[in-house]
Amino acid sequence: MTYLRALILGAGYAGEGHTLALRRAGVDIVGMASRTADSCQATAQRLAIPHASTDWRALLTALKPDIVAVATPGNTHLEMASVALAAGCHVYCDKPLAL
User: Is the pLDDT at 55 greater than 90, yes or no?
Assistant: First the structure.
């Protein structure tokens, strides 16, 4: 059986929500990225996400996820979604998509 793999961008409330929802849909959460290392590590550990970093681009390149869930502040959505789409990923993004 083939599983979809997701990278979560954002370690706050929305990032946790994306993680839980995608897992319920059968998606394997392979990584999480956030601006703050301590909160990212703590959230990833609590949610049993194997890779956590402040460098979302490096995780995207290294993990090659099928899905990128963008749960970061609105002013970051356009860049993150655009880079993920260019990498061939499906994108799930909180609103607004861009400011």
Answer: yes
